[in-house]
Amino acid sequence: MSDYEGGPAADDDLSLPRATVYKLIGEMLPDDIACAKDTRDLLLDCCNEFIHLIASESNEICEKEAKKTIAAEHVLAALHELGFEKYVTEVQEAYNEHRKQQTKDRGRKSAKLNQLGMSEEELLRSQELLFAQARMRLQSQETPDQASESTPASTGTQ
Fold first, then answer.
1. What is the C-alpha to C-alpha distance for residues 117 and 83, in angstroms, rounded to an integer?
2. Residue 138: what are its φ and ψ, rounded to 5°?
3. pLDDT tens digits for 63-102?
4. Cα dist. 18→5, 29, 31, 48 in Å?
């Protein structure tokens, strides 16, 4: 069974969020211009088709290179192949900005770990202690009947 046999519901899974596209349309239009619902739906369909086209071409380029994961370079090559060269610079800039933001986010996460003032070994010991305390609390809440039903393999080992 192909992915496309699911009917309209399956097609919605492969679509951009309608509300998001409608919001973008509203933000792009001047205040004195209205956009009919049919027009918004048509624009949504065009956006979805464009993304499917770029994704399919990117996938073909990826397969030609014997790769299993579509990379940004494959998307940029797909834009060239399909005649959308004028978008390549803007897409490359957006991608570079995205990578900068990811690097900042990673730096923040590692900075948080460093700000704890504990080494990784100390953090692991602390985690093990917390697990042991939780295990003891759980075992103390067991009734005598529950304790006798426990299997030997599940008690006494950590």
1. 54
2. -65, -45
3. 999 999 999 999 999 999 999 999 999 999 999 999 999 8
4. 22, 17, 20, 10
Q: Which residue has the tokens 């933001």?
A: 101
DSSP string, the chain: --GGGG-HHHHHHTS--HHHHHHHHHHHS-TT----HHHHHHHHHHHHHHHHHHHHHHHHHHHHTT-SS--HHHHHHHHHHTT-GGGHHHHHHHHHHHHHHHHHHHHHHHHHHHHT---HHHHHHHHHHHHHHHHHHHHHHS-HHHHHHS-GGGSS--
Question: Alpha-carbon distance 142 to 128, whole Å?
Answer: 21
**Residue type (1 letter), 1:** M
Residues present in the chain in total: 158
Tell the residue number behind the tokens 């004195």, with chain if given: 32
Residue holding tokens 């008690």?
Answer: 155
> What pTM value is reported for the model?
0.58
